[in-house]
């Protein structure tokens, strides 16, 4: 009977995300064709940047056309568009003076009007995301190692924080980079009952319980939609990995964690029959064989098809292209493609899945690549768009 219950729970966990994903993807596919506004976050300190820039992107041709400055705001290192398309949010990464800004976009000009701005309640926020209901925004503060939840009002303004949790755990061995907790990425689970936090300092992707009715985070047992909980559902990585960002498979059954310090991808099964603790099943390098220089891995993303995974390398200055085995989620590195610039801190796959846009922070440009739908390979389109210190792109569909 015990084994039977475990199998039933296991199947429910697998089936529910599939249904949720399927229903969530339908409007996205319908909206994938056409014109989009592309908001580019930048660093303004010691650069010529003025803040957030806006471009127009055509998914049919892959053309990226400059519009101008959308909002003058300090060091907007991460920009995120709300799912309703009515609001845009930015993490202003400015040490102890860091803030989170809420904007409303003008559909015609792309300009952003500030709604309100609140202290990030930590130092150097570097990633923001939303819960599945769109009522809360999650913030990862890198230097202070804490994560914060802010409610989003009916008018898009941010309210007083409903949660503020400091990451805890065993520090990694890299004394320079792992001197304390360093939250670098935060995303909700598919069922919205938890949030995952990639902490570079702790060599872990932490899991917190999330109450979507109150906007609170909890440590310890994580309650879900089945009657099972354990004390620690965090994903543990090899010491010195330095997890930076992560990506979930289409059905939520796998999680791929990018290790900044070791330039690796560690793959986890997210469910199991005994304890539901994430289980590592593969670790692969994102660097080409023979590369011996310094490198910091930066971004990771799955192609919408689920067949390909991409990561960026700063130092090697490439996009690593992986094939994803449909049966078990295992990865095979098939190419490292030059980004045509220096320090690709971030890249974005456009909503159609046909193009990849690589932001080269130190060469001040965005390079557009065509994605081969059969192989996942990348080919430069010839477009190189100049923008000062680009570090993030977020798309907003034009109605």
Give a written overview of the molecule.
- The chain has 399 residues and is mostly beta strands.
- Helix content is 7%, strand content 47%.
- The strands form seven sheets. Strands 12, 13, 14, 15 and 16 form a five-stranded antiparallel sheet that branches.
- Strand 18 (254-259) and strand 19 form a beta hairpin.
Question: How are the SSEs placed, and which strands pair?
Answer:
Layout: H1 2-30, E1 35-42, E2 51-58, E3 64-72, E4 76-81, E5 88-92, E6 99-105, E7 112-119, E8 125-130, E9 136-141, E10 146-151, E11 163-166, E12 183-188, E13 194-199, E14 204-211, E15 216-218, E16 235-236, E17 243-248, E18 254-259, E19 264-269, E20 279-285, E21 296-302, E22 308-314, E23 318-324, E24 331-338, E25 344-349, E26 355-360, E27 365-371, E28 378-386, E29 390-397
Antiparallel strand pairs: 1-2, 1-29, 2-3, 4-5, 5-6, 6-7, 8-9, 9-10, 10-11, 12-13, 13-14, 14-15, 14-16, 17-18, 18-19, 19-20, 21-22, 22-23, 23-24, 25-26, 26-27, 27-28
């Amino acid at each position: 009977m015990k084994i039977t219950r475990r199998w039933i729970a296991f199947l429910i966990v697998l089936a529910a995300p599939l249904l949720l994903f399927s229903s969530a993807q339908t409007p996205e596919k319908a909206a994938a064709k056409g014109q989009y506004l592309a908001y580019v976050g930048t660093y303004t300190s010691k650069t010529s940047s003025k803040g957030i820039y806006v471009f127009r992107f055509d998914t049919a041709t892959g053309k990226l056309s400059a519009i101008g400055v959308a909002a003058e705001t300090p060091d907007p290192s991460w920009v995120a568009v709300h799912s309703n398309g009515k609001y845009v949010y930015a993490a202003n990464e400015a040490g102890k003076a860091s803030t989170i800004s809420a904007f409303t976009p003008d559909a015609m000009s792309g300009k952003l009007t500030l709604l309100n701005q609140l202290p990030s309640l930590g130092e150097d926020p570097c990633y923001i995301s939303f819960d599945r209901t769109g009522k809360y925004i999650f913030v990862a503060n890198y230097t202070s190692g804490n994560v914060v939840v802010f409610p989003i009002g009916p008018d898009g303004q941010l309210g007083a924080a409903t949660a503020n949790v400091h990451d805890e755990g065993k520090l990694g061995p890299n004394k320079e980079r792992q001197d304390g907790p360093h939250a670098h990425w935060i995303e909700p689970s598919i069922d919205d009952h938890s949030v995952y936090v990639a902490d570079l300092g702790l060599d872990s992707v932490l899991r917190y319980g999330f109450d979507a009715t109150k906007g609170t985070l909890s440590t310890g047992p994580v309650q879900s939609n089945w009657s099972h909980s354990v004390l620690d559902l965090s994903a543990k990585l090899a010491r010195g990995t330095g997890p930076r960002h992560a990506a979930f498979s289409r059905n939520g059954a796998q999680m791929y964690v990018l290790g900044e310090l070791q330039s690796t991808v560690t793959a986890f099964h997210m469910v199991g029959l005994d304890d539901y603790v994430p289980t590592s099943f593969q670790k692969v390098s994102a660097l080409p064989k023979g590369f011996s220089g310094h490198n910091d891995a930066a971004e990771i993303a799955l192609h919408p098809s689920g067949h390909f995974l991409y990561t960026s390398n700063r130092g090697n200055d490439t996009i690593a292209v992986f094939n994803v085995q449909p049966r078990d989620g295992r990865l095979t590195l098939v190419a490292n493609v030059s980004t045509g610039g220096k320090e690709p801190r971030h890249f974005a796959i456009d909503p159609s899945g046909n193009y990849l846009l690589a932001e080269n922070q130190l060469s001040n440009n965005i390079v557009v690549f065509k994605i081969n739908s059969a192989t996942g390979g990348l080919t430069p389109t010839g477009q190189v768009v100049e923008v000062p210190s680009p570090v993030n792109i977020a798309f907003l569909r034009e109605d």
